[in-house]
Amino acid sequence: MAGLKAYRAKRSFSATPEPRGTKEKGKSHRFVIHKHDARHLHYDLRLELDGTLKSWAVPKGPPHELHEKHLAIMVEDHPLAYRTFKGRIPAGQYGAGTVEIWDHGTYETGENLSSTELERKMKRDLADRKLKIRFHGKKLHEAFALVRMNNPKIKNGWLLMKESDK
Ligand code: MN
Questions:
Q1: Cα–Cα distance measured from residue 64 to residue 109, given in angstroms and rounded to the nearest whole number
Q2: Nearest CA among 47, 73, 69, 46 for reference residue 59
Q3: How far away, in angstroms, is 55 Cα from ligand 1 center?
């Protein structure tokens, strides 16, 4: 899912405080994890890549135990401006409820790559459906893997796995 078409199609920007956003240039690699108290409380993991935020809804949030796996559903790309979004999405709007920032910072793959190399590797790994991510956040400092599931019954299903301790 590339671009912001799907993101914009779901939202009415006259009614929601969420950013309309633009696709941006740049090769920084920041992340945010939103805690989203919508119809069901869940977390949203968003990784900056290719000028947008690749996004997954993670019902249980990041796993705590080493090798533990939590379901992560890939959703539409969000604009980079969403990285700092928090607030209340009004009733009747898509994702109605409160959004807070649970963690944020930067990520890399743990291989000491330049930002250009990291950008290239992440794009390739996303196409291969297997990402390695080490977070440098306020809460998270560990390495995780994000791997596409093979189960065709779970649409856009990925697994977020904890791969290292601090
Ligand atoms: Mn959400």
A1: 19
A2: 73
A3: 9
DSSP strands (E only) in 12-129:
30-37, 41-49, 52-58, 69-78, 87-89, 97-108
pLDDT digits (tens, 9 = 90+) for 72-84: 999 999 999 999 9
Helix (H) or strand (E) holding 147: strand 143-148
Measure the CA–CA gap between 64 and 154, rounded to whole angstroms.
23
**Separation in Å, CA 114 to CA 28, 29, 103, 111, 119:** 10, 11, 24, 9, 8
pLDDT bracket for residue 2 (50, 70, 90): low
CA 40 to ligand 1 centroid distance, Å = 9
Nearest by Cα to 82 from 10, 132, 133: 10
Give residue 43 CA to ligand 1 midpoint distance, Å: 6
Cα 11–chain centre separation: 18
- Whether 129 and 147 have beta carbons less than 8 Å apart is answered as yes
Q: Looking at the predicted structure, is the pLDDT value of residue 48 above 60?
A: yes
